[in-house]
Amino acid sequence: MTDRLELLLTLAFFLDFLVGDPRSWWHPVQSIGSFASFVERVLRSMEWLPLKQAGVVAVVLVVGGSAVVTAGVLDLAFSLHPVVGTVLTIVTMYYTLATKDLADHAGRVFEALRAGDVQLGRERVAMMVGRDTALLDETGVAQAATESVAENCVDGVTAPLFYALLFGPVGAVAYKAANTLDSMFGYKNERYLEFGWAAARFDDLLNYLPSRLTVLAIFGAAKVSGMRSGEVFHAVALTAKRHASPNAGFPEAAFAGALGVRFGGPRWYEGERRDLPWLGIAEERCSPEVLRKAVSLMLVSSGLFLLGGIMLKVVL
């Protein structure tokens, strides 16, 4: 399978681009999430096991288990028939990508704002972000959606592509399992501060290279799309490390530079105000048109990331 992995991944990428994730379909991440919840309950019931160590065990069990199950299912599929194995390989990698899903979510916010329905925009952007959206104006809604597109470009697209190129469908699923754990356990609150520590740190580790390589893809996409490519690296160099996350600031600052806007600033979470540092070097605020451009930038960046990865593998 290795000699044709690039072709299968390309087919998976285009399948995701065309079909996305229909909500009526079963999704493997749902099963990973259910297994993670089961593992958490079991480990928390072991009162003799310190929470921090329990969190490490959870990461090993969920990420390792997801990888082992994926490898076993694919081996079984290939033993039945090469065509069955090939199709399942494509579908497995397709399920780890969220290009169209991300574009569709942002597109629905854009359509609401373009129609002048800010309330509908608030409702739709609430499905993309964790901040309070009830009091956002048009600019706030557009900024929330644009920031989400920028941040999730890595988690939802380029990082799964990166690990699929390196380790095939098993690598992509293992990454998705780690990312799912971070979204479930990676909170700095009383419940997860210790138990979720390993999940958050492991996700940071896995995203370190993809987040930085994505900046190159964003630069290329801005260049071919006629956006502000010259400001991408400048914005990253000056502002990326202001972000609380060791990785998220890189794609966000790159997007801000390419779009000529700034991200960050004050926002509310569960009624509590937080003042986030500004990312980007421009003073302009987001708008519905900026959101539309961000979706285009994400799509082109994703395609260039895949193309660049395939070319690099061929050369090496």
UniProtKB/TrEMBL annotation:
Gene: cobD
Location relative to the cell: Cell membrane
Entry keyword annotation includes Transmembrane helix: yes
PANTHER family according to UniProt: COBALAMIN BIOSYNTHESIS PROTEIN CBIB (PTHR34308)
Any one GO molecular function term: threonine-phosphate decarboxylase activity
Superkingdom of origin organism: Bacteria
Biological pathway: Cofactor biosynthesis; adenosylcobalamin biosynthesis
Similarity comment: Belongs to the CobD/CbiB family.
Biological source species: Prosthecochloris vibrioformis
Protein purpose: Converts cobyric acid to cobinamide by the addition of aminopropanol on the F carboxylic group.
GO biological process terms on file: cobalamin biosynthetic process
Alphabetic keyword roster: Cell membrane, Cobalamin biosynthesis, Membrane, Transmembrane, Transmembrane helix
UniProt cross-references to HAMAP family, sorted A to Z: CobD_CbiB (MF_00024)
Membrane topology: Multi-pass membrane protein
This protein's GO CC annotations: plasma membrane
Predominant cellular place of this UniProt entry's protein: membrane
UniProt-recorded name of the protein: Cobalamin biosynthesis protein CobD
